[in-house]
Amino acid sequence: MTTDKNSLTQRSTVLTLAIACGSAVANVYYNQPLLADMERVYNLVPNAESRLNTVYMVINYTGGALGYFLSTYTWGLWQWKGVCALGFFLLAVAFIAHFSVRNRKSPAV
């Protein structure tokens, strides 16, 4: 079976462009929530952007690393059922923390 050299070049060009476009979309998808969160953090103390950025990124990546560790450990013990249960448990903890802090704030009168 012979292939046309021009056809092979066109396919590899299309594949390369598809990978580049997919990477660009994934980059925007990942960075957009980070930018929104960082805007909120920067509004806390306007003159301390670098320190706030450091604290934000350390907390963000520490949380991600902890999530990866817990899910990997849970997978080793109970596989998908355990990972799903861990996800629901952490979601419940996040909801409880969010609404308990939200209810403690007194409205400005």
Describe the 3D structure.
The protein is mainly α. The chain folds into 2 domains: 1-43; 49-109. Helix content is 86%, strand content 0%. The chain has helices at residues 5-42, 49-104.
Question: In a nutshell, what does this entry contain?
Answer:
With 109 residues, the protein is mostly helical.
Mean pLDDT comes to: 85
Shape category:
flat
Please report the number of helical segments: 2
Give the radius of gyration. 22 Å
Biggest sheet details: none
Q: How much helix is in the residues?
A: over 70%
Order of SSEs? HH
Low-confidence blocks of residues: none
Number of strands: 0
Termini, distance in Å? Answer: 80 Å
How many structural domains?
Answer: 2
Class by SSE composition: mainly alpha
Tell me the fraction of residues in β-strands, as a range. Answer: under 5%
Q: Topology, pairings included?
A:
Layout: H1 5-42, H2 49-104
Please give a handful of descriptors for the protein shown:
single chain, flat, 0% strand, 86% helix, mainly alpha, 109 residues, 2 domains
